[in-house]
Amino acid sequence: MLQKYCIALEDIVYWAQLSARAAPRRTEPDTGQDKMLREGKIMVTSLYQSLCNMETIYADRVAIRYYDEAKRGVTEVYYRQYAQDLRRFVSFLRSKAGDVKGQRVAILARNSYHYVICMYGTVLAGGVAVPLNMGKNWDEIQYELDLVEPVCVLQDGEYLQWEPALADAYSAKLEPMDAFTAFAPAQDVKEVEDLAAMAFIMFTSGTTGRSKGVMLSQKNLFAAMPAFLNPFDDVRKATGWDTDKFCSLSALPMFHISAMTSLVSWSITGHCINLCNDLKYFYRDIGAMHSEVMAVVPVLLKSLYKDVMKGRRDRLNGLCVLTCGAAMFDPQMLKDLMDKGFFIAQMYGMTETCGDGAWNSSQEEKHLTSVGHVDNSCEYKLDDGELCMRGTPIMLGYYKDPEATAEVIDKDDWFHTGDIARLEEDSYMYLTGRKKNLIILDSGENISPEELEGLVEKCPAVQECVVKEMGKKIGAVVYCPQDKQQTVQEHITEMNRTLPLYKRIGVVEFSETPLPRNATGKLVR
Amino acid sequence: MERAEIISQITAILEDVAEVSPEDVTESSVLMDDLDLSSMEILTIVADLEETFGLRIPEKELRNFVTMGDLVDYLAANVG
After folding, report:
1. Residue of chain A minimizing CA distance to B61
2. Which of A17, A45, A300, A325 sits 20 to 30 Å CA-CA off A197?
3. Fold of A448-511
4. The complex's ipTM?
């Protein structure tokens, strides 16, 4: 995982003007903690320590804002209340499952404040939080639930609406997300016995077959934190902006490593996170909650880019720092946004490395396509061109899958990322390809082509099929009789109705001859 | 509401959100293919449709919106 930062230097005056406009909105007391934390005088290495800070030094600051549908307005939660709700959740979980040490607690819900409480409350109680992707169909979710054998499944009713089979299979374990609110805060929450023990399972797309559960500990998580905190020094130095007062809009799904880690990093520094709980209402939410920073994937960046270029920047309500991650970005788009006064931080990461890696603080256009410099949290090397990482942030392994773990973590503990990289003399790193057969979309989602090929091939007219990335979309090349092309097209249109938006095949091309194969008989992708 | 009026409202939103020219839109247009819409654009369009037509479109319906006709059908059936 690498990160990269790019800053437009050529218009210093504009930066200064923008800096004045991006004046802090936060009204909470400045206790000087930001500076101390930045200077390494406050060390936080666990969620419990973070909880203690929430109740003391950050108690009177706003922790989380979100748009409340019921009251049609913004709700603010202070750190004091946030901590109390985490303690309530611990009481709730104990009442349901007793000693939850090492027990899995699945979360299947849309983003919400309650989601945050359920995820981190589970870990504070000693359990293992398993946030699941709501976009997956029941077959996939059932596989993941059966694999982790949760003591309870926290859900908000949304998923049940279109997959009632969830209730049939797990009725005894379903619990509402807000159940904790009826409980008193647990006063005896303490540090978990082993910070190196599994605390999260986050599912990631496999290159073949089923998804894999990435096991992460609190030790992994907090070892990765400098990678998320240090970059703000670069922003501060380059722009003069008072980043201590920044708020972050969190719009990515909480089952994604980027959202999971940023919720922790912003809370250990006592900052405020504005939750956008449904991307559908992104513009409503950003309009209602002033935010300077936002983590984006290419598809989101493209929307912001259009707004800026069409003179609608006021819709973005103060947004000035974009942390770009999960996939490759269009460098021209980044350059244009920098020219318009945005600070662009490109993040490259993996669930398996807990989001840790490196970043690029370059302010030069020539480095726009680089993933930048590695950071100090891990060791790095190129093994036959493949980027490998070793260090505390690296996952414990794939859940119940030692074979898959051994495929990516070698005997010397090097994690093989699957990304082919090139290191230039000026130590800037560039990704040049992937060893793994995986499509990484503009939405940041990783897609296994084989999985979609299997669905296309369910149409009897399909003789051969290859699914690959075609011009930023998922494309299928199909070999079938010419008179069956319409049938295949209709099959794919119907198939798309069963898939979440991000997984749909957007381009279909037909071949009247068999698809090319390599020397070993495998289809050429 | 007349079907033609619904189509006119949708095409106006399509033009505003994604710069899709109204003459390029037919009921059989596939949203992510023919109209080249991103998933984010589809979500923004759905939010704008909710505001325009004064209704709430449940998450589960999103899966059914593959073509322009799917959007029109849904709105025709649910808008008073």
Report:
1. A162
2. A325
3. GMP Synthetase; Chain A, domain 3 (3.30.300)
4. 0.82
